[in-house]
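Sample intake sheet
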Amino acid sequence: MFLSKSIPFCISVIPRLLKRSGFKTIPPNVFQLSKGHYLRFLSTSPVLQHKLYKENENSHAYSIMKKRADSYQLAKKFEPSTSAMSHERYESILNYDWGRSTPEDLISSFEALSNYAFHYNIGIDLEIFDGFVDALTDNMKVMSDKQLESVCGNFLKWPETASVKTRNFVEIWAALDDVLINRLIDWDVNTSLLFADYMHKLNLSRRCDYTWKVTNKIIRVAKKLSTEQLVQSMYYIAASRKSSKFMYSFELAFENQFNDLTIDEIGVVSIGFFKSKAPLRNLLFVDTLINRVADEASNVTDISLCGILKIIRYSAKIQNIAAINRLQDALGPRINDLSLLCCVHVALVGTPVNIFHPQSLTTIAQKFVKESNKARMKDLERLAFTFAEFNFNPGTTPPVFDTIINELDRSEREFEIKMHPRCLVKCLSFLAMLHIFPLHLIDKVLDEKFLKSAYEQYPHFRNSGISHEESFREILLLSNSVQIECKYYNGNLASENACRDLTKKLTDYLPEPGSKYPIKSSFDKVCSEVLLLLRKMRGGENFVHGDHVLPHFQKGDLIICNNANDQPVMVTDYFRAQKVGSVKMAPDSKMKWFAFVFVGRYVTISNTRRYLGPTVMKVRQLQKIGYRPLVITWQAWNNLKTEDEKTIYLNNLIKQNSSEDELHLSLQQ
């Protein structure tokens, strides 16, 4: 606040101080800025600008290409002249009528103006450049390729603007964008990539249409690309974050060139696939990629490794389990040498295929508790997700979950939380899966003001159009879980309307024989068969009810009830009277209420019978609200071939969980 108020004062005083000191090189018009342009005086030259942030993926990837600049089509550096033109020539350029000038004159004058702006740090957004910029953009369509390259190179000398929409800056780059697109059809791959790099240097890869057009043109000849052309094309795809429906052509080129690429170049290509949301389709090639990283685990850099791990995680299927296990074994000895960000991706790499590697997770957790102040909110969320997914407590000293909560509590995190509020909500929902409830933080995030800042639709989800991919399930999970598992909590909760609307949006219909909703999944198949059998065994529809008694879970359960004599009791009337979105407690503790929980084929840890965290949480919470969970796995049900076998299986499951001791024993196992 102080700085913003003091800047206009400084700008009014600095010229007078410089003049009194005898400083003779103040150019005309530098201080003749309108109120909206005074910040330009404080901008820094692109060449001298201090690097404020650590090297990120894009800058690291670009540095890989710069190491072999002769092999890549990178923008040429147009060095500023050692001295600027005279103030008199500067004034003459500004006052000249450029309406009928030739491209040669315009380019020569633009170079002189660019050098002048570089030396005196003058922004292109000043009104005094409007006439010249209009003439320059009008003549671009008749300039040669070399002249266009000169415009691009000199354009880079100007101080960086506050926005791509800044006055004059937007006019020049928009005109360039149109001209480059029109010439693209006549250019070869190298020329196309060269101008794509100029647009990238101007920070326009995500804004301009040219970069996207270039990659869509090159993708048609992907099989003919050299390794350098492939790497550079994928770099611009990553920078623009725009995909093509023909990305498989780049994947085939990636496979063909794979052995000729260095591990760092593989990292650049991997980031291109990940940022464009294009998974690798060939699972045998994914295995080849994983094994290459495992073989070079001791040499790959952190940032390249992060990029490769992202595309592995995005592409991996159950066929890649063995290779991922080998990769995690190979990366284990390097964990203490990797950055914390890279370690987070090592922890995440096995989650899509449920690979649990306790040695790596324990080492990562211990590293995290030592360096937790370096973690971003996203890192805290992702680590909490990994531990919750595998229902794993690494047993670090100090405890890793206490460290996460302490980090969320730090006042230094407030700005980051304001920028990424959903990270906090998600992190707390993952801790809730682990039966960890920092009540003061839960009270904070369930406050209506916080929820409205984090979710624009809150509390009006009914017509918001949200989907499962962007589900706000964490709101329901936190609000319901704290009611179920923290009986002394009296803080904020999600509103009844929000819970109702979210439940309608985020839960699946339970399969009903003869309904209009088709049976699509293994869950639907097992649930439908069990429903029919239970109705037949227990006396009809009124004795079995399908419902979301825990509405924060996408899949529902089948509910039955026995009296003290183990005779069936009708259940449908009670549940039909309950509100949508409410947690449906078992109504009578003297009765035996059973909830059939259906577990699909991919909700256990790979190569084990251990349930993943969400299933563990569901079983725990069903017990808390008075039900006896009866878990039916897809594998167990699929092994039963006849109706008699299935009937016997269901009867035995109910009988085994009818007494308190047997229920406790079965859950312990």
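Comment: The two ends are 61 Å apart (CA to CA). Confidence is low (pLDDT under 50) at residues 1-55, 661-669.
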